Amino acid sequence: MTLRPHHTLALCLALAVPLAAQQTHDAPAIPAPIRNLIVLDPAHGGSDSGAHLTDSLLEKDLTLALAGRLKSTLTAHGFQVITTRDGDTGPTSDQRAELANHARASVCLLLHASNSGSGAYLAASSLTPSDDEHIALPWDTAQSAYVGDSASLLDLASKAFTSARVPAITLRSSVPPIDSLTCPALLLELAPNGRTPVTSADYQQSVADALTAAITAFRDQNDTTLKNAAPIPTPPPTPVKPKVPRPVTPKTPGAAQ
């Protein structure tokens, strides 16, 4: 039997529907954050010294020391800690965010310091929350999927600092790389506490203890509702520096070939 063109088309369409249904697959599951993994980002480093806290102390050195103290405290409470720098290096904001995002941290903390103000300044991102936390978001607004969780962490941190008798002011900020992080994230700027300087070991330990208490409470609060993370955004490409041609050295007459 010879099929007419319109009969052939109808048959193809009839076969295509069940075939398409058979080939439908669920989207691959996105890995959930690692429950006890914390990323610490000591600000500045390398040629970026940050603020001059005293005549002999730079912000980049204090944030690194504070990260070490906080890492020890968190580790003692069962957390695994990754830092974006362990020495006097200066990773870019995008490099810091990329490290944190691929680590699948459950919390990220950005550490800064100042010689002005009083107590601690705690900030979450100022982005508007995303309607769907599972869609791929632009690099510069990836944190919008976590604004709600970051706000909850900010509230817990404020209460922990109050219990530790360390004055804390909460606010919103877009200091890099907070808006590119795919984890609940806070920024801490440590300032002197009255007459107590930021260099005080006891003061730094009180801050480390308060942050650890807040992170522990946040983890326990979210244990039964831990959600899959949003897709990891792609960082913008790093500009490639053009190669400078090497100068040609003229040959000396009579030189060996």
Spell out the blueprint of helices and strands.
Blueprint: H1 5-22, E1 37-42, H2 59-76, E2 80-83, H3 93-103, E3 107-113, E4 120-125, H4 147-163, E5 168-173, E6 185-190, H5 201-222
Parallel strand pairs: 1-2, 1-3, 3-6, 4-5
Antiparallel strand pairs: 4-6
Helix pairs in contact: 2-5, 4-5
Features:
257 residues, alpha/beta, Aminopeptidase, 14% strand, globular
Q: How far apart lie the N and C ends? A: 83 Å
**Annotated CATH topology:** Aminopeptidase
- Strand order in space, largest sheet: 2-1-3-6-4-5
CATH class label = Alpha Beta
Strand content: 5-15%
- Looking at the overall shape, the CATH architecture is 3-Layer(aba) Sandwich
Domain tally:
1
The biggest beta sheet reads:
6 strands, mixed
Name the helix and strand elements from N-terminus to C-terminus, one letter apiece. Answer: HEHEHEEHEEH
Overall shape: globular
Cα gyration radius (Å) = 26 Å
**Roughly how much helix do the residues carry, as a percent range?**
25-40%
Question: Which homologous superfamily in CATH is the superfamily?
Answer: Zn-dependent exopeptidases
Count of helix runs: 5
Number of strands: 6
Mean pLDDT, to the nearest integer, reads 83
Question: Uncertain runs with pLDDT below 50, 5 residues or more?
Answer: 5-30
Query: Pairing-aware structural class of the strands and helices?
Result: alpha/beta
